[in-house]
Design brief:
single chain, Alpha/beta knot, 2 domains, eight-stranded parallel beta sheet, four-stranded antiparallel beta sheet, 8 helices, globular
Length: 243
């Protein structure tokens, strides 16, 4: 649903007719008449198109450009983010999407604010997926990342897959991130970022029991949103499509 994939070859300068699942993906991405969209054809090439017509059953797209390289990174980054206060979650979702994140999974840790406390001030969680969609439109991505509901720390740990590299930012005793990435190259990375107060020792031990390697970003203490954005950018530079 998060990506428009066609079962036909696409040619620049031509108009295509879209129905079925691709049309559903277009609607999910907020497509409307005049919208610019990124779509993928049967040969897995990515194109840019403009929506000319849109009805309940079909859409007409004019293809005007082709990407010289894939629009999506081959590196699958799943960001596990402790719920921050104020507008920071919205910023993290926006920038994680722009940088090519595959999914953003918010969670509540011992030192983070709860969703109930946050929503009591101003309800924002219902907008999270929409923020990712708007960031996809701005960044010309082909795929909308999945934004999950905020869940307890332990529940998030239990529901992760086994494959891939798992890293957790921990300023107290983490390994050098660059060394870990070079020792454990992977195509999927679960990147966990804690709240402003950091993780507790118990949480770190629980994460290590699920395969997470504690790492650190130098000696400076970063705000949670700075840490999340920096981590994704570094991962894409080292193992993905930045640089």
């Amino acid at each position: 649903m998060g990506r428009i994939i066609l079962n036909e070859n696409v040619v620049v300068g031509k108009e295509i007719l879209m129905k079925g699942p691709p049309l559903g993906a277009l609607r999910f991405q907020g497509g409307r008449v005049g919208s610019l969209v990124t779509l993928t054809d049967a040969e897995r090439k990515d194109f840019r198109g403009r929506v000319l017509r849109l009805s309940e059953t079909e859409a007409s797209i004019f293809i005007f450009d082709v990407f010289s390289s894939p629009a999506e990174s081959s590196l699958e980054i799943v960001l596990l983010q402790a719920l921050p206060e104020k507008e920071r979650m919205e910023l993290i979702i926006q920038k994680a999407t722009e940088l090519g994140g595959l999914a953003i999974l918010p969670f509540q840790s011992e030192k983070s604010i709860s969703l109930m406390e946050r929503e009591a001030k101003q309800k924002k969680a219902h907008r999270w997926q929409h923020i990712a969609i708007k960031a996809v439109q701005q960044s010309r991505r082909a795929r909308v990342p999945f934004v999950g509901e905020c869940r307890p720390f332990q529940e998030v740990l239990e529901n992760l897959g086994e494959e891939g590299l798992k890293v957790l930012l921990w300023e107290k005793g983490g390994e050098n991130l660059k060394s870990v990435l070079r020792q454990h190259p992977a195509q999927r990375i679960y990147a966990m970022v804690g709240p402003e107060g950091g993780f507790t020792e118990k949480e770190v031990e629980s994460a290590k029991g699920k395969g997470f390697i504690p790492v650190k970003l130098g000696q400076r203490i970063l705000r949670t949103e700075t840490a999340a954005i920096s981590l994704i950018a570094i991962l894409q530079y080292e193992l993905g499509d930045l640089g």
